């Protein structure tokens, strides 16, 4: 690390001004809060079900509920947001007029909730859009292609707490120093390797996968015909953790459509877009099976999409398989 730690807040304020820096500092506060809650989960009896189901029909965990409340409060109190879309809330939250600002934030407060109870890495995913002034927000302000986001990031709560962020000029990673309570720039200008040695997918769904392309790709990973070594399978089942590893080591993450989830499982606004934005900013690619993921125009806030993202060359391979199928 260079002499003189580059701290997150100082770095952010240097690179941005005013409203955006304040918004980010509130997001960072939310991440620190959730990180503390995740670390104490077992001790504070925060694991287990909260007894309610969310809009996707999934059982909510206590930590999901808490994390959602934390982020809503952190974002509203920043005075810089006008619309909030959370995975946990069926409807978008329109911030009360007195506290409105120009940013719309879409987020999954605690992604990978099936991994909470066993202490595996989970995370928060965030995407940010900007509108002119936020005085008269409309739902169309968040129903925009991911390429219009002004920033995206995630915070991974694992063996370390790591915040990975892009404001459209590359990707930086910051690790929380628990003794200081500050995020330190530990991974400047992250670039994903052009090709990776691993693939990441819930292969247990293979029987139900829609179409042949992902099966062909996975077969190529396991039984390469070009003399290259077989790829390793790495799958945690927490998108933040799987994408984080993919970003740092290279490789490929896919969640295709299947018979259970005909549009894929992952949500466009706060899962697919944020991660696709980071991948592109790091030099990788993100593809839906039909188009560049960031070009998608969502029509509802909890829309889903298949997603294939990762190292540039690995995504090229799956795009080629789709292109070949389209020519038949
Ligand atoms: P969640 O938002 O309800 O936690 O679901 C999203 C998670 C992702 O983190 C992960 O990539 C995926 O679901 C795993 O799904 P599966 O268990 O079907 O492999
Ligand atoms: Mg999620």
TrEMBL record:
Full protein name: Fructose-1,6-bisphosphatase, cytosolic
Subcellular localization: Cytoplasm
Domain Fructose-1-6-bisphosphatase class 1 C-terminal intervals: 192-322
Organism, as annotated: Salvia splendens (Scarlet sage)
Fructose-1-6-bisphosphatase class I N-terminal domain segment(s): 7-188
Any one GO biological process: photosynthesis
InterPro entries: FBPase_C_dom (IPR044015), FBPase_class-1 (IPR000146), FBPase_N (IPR033391), FBPtase (IPR028343)
Cofactor needs: Mg(2+)
EC numbers: 3.1.3.11
Catalytic class of the enzyme: hydrolase
UniProt xrefs under Pfam families: FBPase, FBPase_C
Domain of life: Eukaryota
Reactions it catalyzes: beta-D-fructose 1,6-bisphosphate + H2O = beta-D-fructose 6-phosphate + phosphate
SUPFAM superfamilies recorded: Carbohydrate phosphatase
An annotated Gene Ontology molecular function: fructose 1,6-bisphosphate 1-phosphatase activity
